[in-house]
């Protein structure tokens, strides 16, 4: 980005840093050299997202990341704080259900399939030498079902512990970065107008007095909430394991009779249920606090809640390991009830979330808002679907491995297999793909037709005397395919709606009590029954293939830095937002990057009295805007904003309207001294921000840049120019023109600049997309 092989890190560390050309290192000491040009400085944050090989493990956290995005997709509102808080509570409950779902899947594999079914069946245990010591046929100490379950519980416990460790480690590295916002400029912020919990202003707050959310002091400092949610989700995971271990023993004791055993069984289960209810209360109780930088941490809750849950798990393991010589494992553990209850709860939460989103959207309708405000509920539904696919894939692959040549649930299989619901969920996957293929094919056909129609428009724009049909079609096709980005809400809406309906059908089918979906249609026409059997078989194959592909991608990313950078593009968008819903999601890099940029701009302008242009490409433009929002007014007046290839309005404004919608972007236009945006019609990611002139400030968007720069061969361009799309904006002459124009619009440098200051141009240095 600096266009020089010799660069120097001027501030920062190996994770994220500011860089300059080697020749510009001491620019502040020689301002006379830079009267005619600015000093370029680049900020690189790539190691925050693609980093080392351990980042590949973040793929396992994908459902948590998607659920966290749903929190930030709520429609904007001005006078409905209760509805906004209720929206946040519902998203946090969806996120909690995902933690329980993932832990329940680990319990299904370790407790049910392995310890209960396989170890309890001689034919299965004999084929697995590592299970021999726990085989029921050997009548050893570990042969009792309760003791096998207690030992197997170490596997899901280790998973929960790993998630807690990763969340705690990243919490200490990311959320611990203290932002430089209005801490030292309290008079600049109307504190009384700020909304509690970072949600919405009170009904008595004048809307005009409320500062945009991304400009609030505590927006990029979610330390307290993440610690609280981490404790609650860890406790939820441990209690899920405890319920799986103690539940089986409790059911046996109640069936065996005896007052003491029955009382003990109800006491253990009741204690676990009460602790689980308390965890739900903790999750619902508090949201984000953004009015100020909140350094407090609920240490009593954060420390004792996981510890108490771990103690209950130990109690459950001891209770299950209590000697019961007559106890034999048969059938399956009640995983069917667990997964069905989770599916029903997630469906109900998503529907309730959709109702709240529609209520919020009715007050602040805007035609550019994605899916009429239903983006958050749709994404929450996709998070649940991802969690279901991952858990079902793991359970079915392990079941296939344990039963050897048999098929789980069939007569020759030594084990019953995973819950019926997982087979039903697999059977709806082919149907879902077919439903999605119809609009996808329609969009492809429409795009091809649009490309053909716009050939004449392209030739007219370039004023071509002798058009080249191949060249014209290529430019037109690039523009048409780039416009597909704007149809994403349609596909997401169809996918999430179909997932909700087919998921409900899968639950209904599993409750019919049939192990194989095709058996429900035994009395129907043979063709219908054959279709159902084929759908179930194909779905099981697809879910297994998807899981293996997922593992292969993670393995490749672990070893290959280029693949890791590609996955880093996904993290660029998905982990931009703070962890407001799920603490086990990949960490928010902006909680490090935004303070970095803010501190650099404040410290440099304070020290030198200089002026600067902060320019950002793609995701860098989002970081640049977020950093400018955090600046105190006296610094913001010396800063100009230049964005190019920017998804600020096209993606963020449509999907996150409460934070990047028309209102917040218009407020940023008013607050920043000057702002220009460059875009191309061939860019599939960036686009205009649609901000008209305001007072003495011109419109933000420049006219669309020509891409390619020239149509054919000219004296200045003797070879054909490439179609750049989303890349190489700085190579366009318009970039230098707009940067110079912005510097001219900024107020002159303060007098103290003569003792060591100069105009500077800061760039957010890593593009995405």
Task: Give a quick rundown of the structure.
InterPro entries: AB_hydrolase_fold. With 769 residues, this protein is mainly alpha-helical.
Tell me what you see in this structure.
With 769 residues, the protein is mainly alpha-helical. Among the domains are: 7-37 and 589-764, Rossmann fold (3-Layer(aba) Sandwich); 163-326, no CATH class; 425-574, no CATH class. The chain has 24 helices and seven strands. The chain has helices at 46-49, 62-72, 81-118, 122-126, 145-152, 154-175, 223-256, 259-285, 299-321, 335-363, 375-402, 420-453, 455-462, 469-482, 488-510, 526-559, 561-574, 590-608, 619-629, 633-636, 648-655, 657-660, 662-671, 733-745; strands at 7-12, 17-21, 39-44, 612-617, 639-644, 674-678, 760-764. Strands 1-2-3-7-4-5-6 form a seven-stranded mixed beta sheet, with helices on both faces. A hairpin with a 4-residue loop joins strand 1 and strand 2. Helix 6 runs antiparallel to helix 7, helix 7 (223-256) packs parallel to helix 9 (299-321) and helix 11 (375-402) crosses helix 15 (488-510). The protein is globular and about 90 Å long. Residues 182-209 and 753-769 have low confidence and may be disordered. InterPro entries: AB_hydrolase_fold (IPR029058). Keywords: Membrane, Transmembrane, Transmembrane helix.
